[in-house]
Amino acid sequence: MTHDEQTRSPEARSRRPPGMTDASVEALGILSEALEAVERARGRLYDFHQLTGGADLRLGEAVTRLREAGHTDHADLLEHEVVGRNVLPGYWTFQMVEAYDDTYYEPFRRVEERIRADLADGMRHIQEAEMKESRRTHGHPDHSAQPPGRQ
What we know:
The chain is mainly alpha-helical. 69% of the residues lie in helices and 0% in strands.
């Protein structure tokens, strides 16, 4: 939460900064949705990284068991052709994650943050905050404007 957000009342924290237009709120909402999609894609990339890495470790176990079962030729084939193999030319999955973070994810986050700072005093999820404010029942304990401790 920015300093400006901290100094506003709970109700004011649920509203857009003064002078902000509906078009700007909509544009920032779309930008936020795009960032959320990128966050989900990044999570899938980490899933891919962990699943592929785990599979490679299991392949090593399969090599050991094939050797123990007397299938040395098959163990050698698996070990030489698949275990430790690049998933893309020159890349293991951790390198894909790092390249994605450095090339796309971090620049996207920085630009989104800069635009939000310039247009909305750094406020996030303005559309959602306004929707919450319009849908909540004022005075109901389970419909408070802000989470406990942020009131």
